[in-house]
Design brief:
Blueprint lengths: L6 E8 L7 E3 L35 H8 L6 E3 L6 H16 L18 E6 L3 E5 L25 E9 L3 E11 L3 H4 L1 E2 L5 E5 L9
Parallel strand pairs: 2-7, 4-6
Antiparallel strand pairs: 1-5, 1-8, 1-9, 3-7, 6-7
């Protein structure tokens, strides 16, 4: 067994579903990217994994209009230990709803890089946020647009919350927010804030 003592760490927040099935947490994008938005359609012949381009980023309000109708949709439940596969199914629905001609996923942050959109499917109330807080002003690894450096807090977060019977996940709620406004709606885990855990990988054939 690996006894290096390496800690995995991630920020976490909690969902408290409200009465509304779809909530737009903030009606405007961050001031940093507001001038880079404006179109109502995704750029022609681009992929979801492409870098965003000036003028080709949909405003957060348009994203909400396109994605809110996904509430009520059902996807196959690959199991709690298959979160990436479950998330991939929602990712495909999102790309189709936004008008992309082809689906693509390269595993990088944010999921729909072309639209600065991170997607999360939740069947539990704890949201795993990774190593960077949504409201962080750290720069993204994307080219500058019109002299502006994109930041983590500029990313839009689409949170799909649903219930599962073990076979299908039914989306019951949808939330859309900028990273900057993320903690205006979702409760940040306090205490240590950055949760850490020790993981021990099992060798092949252990079971």
């Amino acid at each position: 067994l690996d006894t290096t003592g390496t800690l995995t760490q991630k920020y976490q927040a909690a969902i408290i579903p409200g009465n509304a099935p779809a909530e737009l947490i903030t009606r405007e994008d961050t001031s940093n990217i507001r001038s880079l938005t404006g179109k109502s359609k995704v750029p022609a012949d681009c992929l979801p994994t492409d870098h965003p381009v000036a003028g080709g980023i949909l405003p957060v309000s348009i994203l909400f209009e396109r994605l809110a109708p996904l509430v009520g949709a059902n996807i196959a439940d690959a199991g709690r230990d298959q979160e990436r596969n479950r998330g991939g199914a929602v990712h495909q629905l999102v790309c189709s709803a936004l008008g992309y001609k082809r689906y693509a996923d390269d595993g990088r942050f944010p999921d729909v890089r072309n639209q600065l959109l991170e997607i999360k499917l939740q069947t539990a109330r704890t949201i795993d946020l990774g190593l960077v807080r949504p409201d962080s002003t750290e720069p993204l690894d994307t080219p500058m647009l019109n002299g502006r450096q994109l930041r983590h807090c500029d990313v839009r977060y689409g949170i799909f919350f649903g219930t599962t019977d073990g076979r299908r996940v039914r989306i019951t709620h949808f939330y859309l927010t900028t990273g900057e406004a993320f903690f205006n709606r979702f409760r940040r885990f306090e205490g240590k804030v950055l949760n850490k855990k020790l993981q021990i990988p099992l060798p092949g054939g252990f079971l």
